[in-house]
Design a protein that fits this description.
Radius of gyration: 24 Å
Number of helices: 12
Bound molecules: prephenic acid
Structural class: alpha/beta
CATH architecture of the largest domain: 3-Layer(aba) Sandwich
Oligomer: single chain
CATH superfamily of the largest domain: Periplasmic binding protein-like II
Distance between the termini: 51 Å
CATH class of the largest domain: Alpha Beta
Mean pLDDT: 93
CATH topology of the largest domain: D-Maltodextrin-Binding Protein, domain 2
Order of helices and strands: HHHEHEHEEHEEEHHEHEHEEEHEEHE
Strand content: 25-35%
């Protein structure tokens, strides 16, 4: 009689044999898919176009959405999409390794967003300020850039919006990231003598209540990024940093308190910027910027065409214009693509009433 243990061993072996056989099939299929991607690259190259675009955001969004729709479980839809995200990322790297600039240094949430969007085969390059991300893409030094644009608790990243006003770059994607902030220290920190806490100003603001309750006397020092804060405290015995998990790992820090953000569903939206307009994916968003003279009813006049043409607004943001007193700049996001008739009609009606209108881009609604 087989003992219970032997029985379990036999079952385990049989299951592992099955897993091995399945893995063999998956491996073969992945290779076949990769060869297909290589052929796609050949076809694109043969098209005769001077600038061949290997990365196709609209197609990637469709592939990921389909993978989620097809999913029968037990893995969750997002999990399945993440696996396909990585397969596609590796396939694209065979066609052309994609270079992506992000608001650095290494370990920022923006880098995390870049990897979430492009997968880990993308080559990511840290830039020290948002302007530099724009400049690198404009100069063609990288294919795309990733910049933060709005946070669910702290609102817009004004610097990113301001950059769009003077830039010809296009928005070609969006990605949302759940943001968890941790309080971290280095191996030389005296944890009971923390008098300075470094982080990005937005992160300090997102943890304001927690800091008031736990470190009311510590000086809060705003630096360029969370990752810079993490880097900075190495060697400071009385300092701590607020940053994400990636920064803690990268700079070898110890997490003292986890998830200290005041709002539990704190998330940040990032934009992917590039040089080309993306074709429709079937579920798209469009961002525009318009300049309006401050007159009674100006805002109503600006928004009314969207309602009339049944175009759903998702966000309206105002910034004072740099060019003239009493002129306002509105950043407007809505559902739909500039190739759609309803969107074109709404935009034509808006354009008739404003001093300036620029389409910043139509792009697939974030999938992951
Ligand atoms: O369909 C394409 O155009 C491809 O290049 C293939 C593929 C893929 O692996 O599915 C790879 C990269 C593109 O960004 C989109 C899709």
């Amino acid at each position: 009689m087989a003992t219970e243990k032997e029985d379990m061993q036999r079952q385990l072996l049989a299951l592992r044999d099955r897993i091995d056989a399945i893995d063999e099939q998956i491996g073969k299929l992945i290779s076949e898919r990769a060869r297909c991607a290589q052929s796609v690259a050949e076809v694109k190259k043969a098209s005769g176009e001077t600038l061949v675009t290997y990365y196709r955001p609209e197609r990637e969004a469709q592939v990921l959405r389909r993978a989620m729709e097809r999913n029968e479980g037990p893995l969750g839809d997002e999990e399945v999409a993440r696996l396909f995200r990585e397969i596609m990322s590796a396939c694209l790297a065979l066609e052309e390794p994609i270079k992506v600039a992000f608001l650095g240094p290494e370990g920022t949430f923006t880098q995390q967003a870049a990897l979430k969007h492009f997968g880990s085969s993308a080559v990511t390059r840290p830039m020290s300020v948002i302007d530099e991300v724009f400049r690198e893409v404009e100069a063609g030094a990288v294919n795309y850039g990733v910049v933060p644009v709005e946070n669910s608790t702290e609102g817009v990243v004004t610097h990113t919006l301001d950059n769009f006003i003077g830039s010809n770059l296009k928005i070609c994607g969006e990605v949302e990231l759940r943001i968890h902030h941790h309080l971290m220290v280095s191996d030389v920190t005296h944890t009971d003598s923390i008098t300075r806490i470094y982080s990005h100003s937005q992160s300090l603001a997102q943890c304001r209540k927690w800091l008031d309750a736990h470190y009311p006397k510590a000086e809060r020092i705003a630096v360029n990024s969370n990752a810079e804060a993490a880097k900075r405290i190495k060697g400071e015995w009385n300092a701590a940093a607020i940053a994400g998990e990636m920064a803690a790992e990268l700079y070898g820090l110890q997490v003292l308190s986890e998830k200290i953000e005041d709002e539990p569903d704190n998330s940040t939206r990032f934009l992917i910027i590039g040089t080309e307009q993306v074709p429709p994916s079937g579920e798209d968003k469009t961002s525009i910027v318009v300049a309006v003279k401050n007159s009674p009813g100006a805002l109503h006049g600006l928004l009314e065409p969207f309602q009339r043409h049944k175009v759903d607004l998702t966000r309206v943001e105002t910034r004072p214009s740099r060019t003239g007193a009493w002129t306002y700049v509105f950043f407007i996001d809505f559902k739909g693509h500039v190739d759609q008739l309803a969107v074109q009609s709404a935009l034509a009606d808006v354009a008739a009433q404003v001093s300036d209108l620029k389409v910043l881009g139509s792009y697939p609604k974030g999938v992951l």
